[in-house]
Amino acid sequence: MSRRNSLYLITKLGTVLLAIVLLSSCSIRKMAMNSIAGSFNNAMDVYTSDNDPQLVKDAMPSSLKMIEMLLANSPDNVDLLTAAAGGFTMYSHAFLVQEADYVEEQDLKKARQMRAEGKKLFLRARDYGLHGLDVNHPGLPDSLEADTTHALDNTTEADIPLMYYTAAAWGSAISLNTDDYELILDLPKVKKLINRCLQLDESWGDGQLHEFMISFAAGTATLGGSLKAAERHFHRALEINEGHSAGTYVTAAEAIAVKQQDKAQFREWLNKALAIDVDKYPNMRLMNVLAQERATWLLNHMDKYFI
Questions:
Q1: What gap in Å lies between CA 226 and CA 173, rounded to an integer?
Q2: Fewer CB atoms < 10 Å away: N or C end of the chain?
Q3: Under 8 Å CB-to-CB from 214, ≥6 apart: which residues?
């Protein structure tokens, strides 16, 4: 079965099961809802293994709205909340924020609109993630808001996806608008969430946690971050994913090499990203394709980043 047909069937399955949910008894509705939630979590694997970003970009909005429709009937379903947090984070990063850089030279207004929409979706993803954590650990968001030292002590490895998506969406929203001072004050919460994930399982997601920390450490000196810390996270991410993630190299090029104004290192890391065979690592295929697109664009626009 082609990926195109797989994505179509995921949407079709969601539509059929939604009808079951709306028309069935409470017990059958609950069983169907659990089945749907699992289906949408599996759908994310179909997306991340695809090699056609445009196809995924076109398909994801329908899936995300379907998830939100299901959440309206089952607002505390953690699987659906996790799928929503992860899906909106991925969509905003890959198809709004990153693409905004590509269209900016031709249409500045459109690029600004895309970033504004990206911020809204990041915050939506954050809120779904926080709600999921509240379901698993009642009162956790309030404790995090109150800056309680032990707010995350009861979280487990099972909470890592929710914590990661919440932190990634939250941090990304902050980075999009550094004039939003109220939002900037939330940076310590982002750090707490990621640090807790690292404590529980630093290897989760083939090094995604350390990859996230490359940018975070490089850009948050006031929270103890530094380029040296960013470099440590970069090398640890490479150890975990064995150099199979193009995103690790691209993130390091933008977060470290640009700050150091090291053109040679910038080129080296981006060329390493481009050298990765995306079909060799199916579970990373889509993200590697997107990272390679980014690497190519960065190499063609070096003048924007170097004096």
A1: 21
A2: C
A3: 230, 233, 234, 237, 248, 251, 252, 255, 256
Helix (H/G/I), strand (E/B), else coil: 203: coil
**Counting Cβ atoms within 10 Å, is residue 182 exposed (0-12), middle (13-18) or buried (19+)?**
exposed
Confidence check: pLDDT of 205 > 60: yes
Closest CA to 164 of 88, 85, 221, 236: 85
The secondary structure element, H or E, covering residue 242 is none
Helix, strand, or coil (residue 256): helix
Longest dimension (CA), the chain: 66
Residues in CB range of 183: below 8 A, 6 or more apart: 173, 174, 177
Q: Position of tokens 């040679």?
A: 264
**DSSP structure class, residue 66:** H
Q: In which residue are the tokens 């009642």 written?
A: 138
112-163 tens-digit pLDDT: 999 999 999 999 999 999 999 999 999 999 999 887 778 899 999 999 999 9
Q: Could you tell me where the DSSP H helices lie in the chain?
A: 3-23, 26-48, 53-73, 78-92, 98-103, 108-136, 140-145, 160-176, 181-184, 187-201, 204-219, 227-241, 246-252, 258-260, 263-274, 285-300
How far is residue 208's CA from residue 236's CA, in Å, rounded to a whole number? Answer: 10
- C-alpha dihedral sign at 35, 37, 40, 42: negative
Token pair, residue 173, equals 């929203």
Q: How close are the terminal C-alpha atoms of the chain, in Å?
A: 49
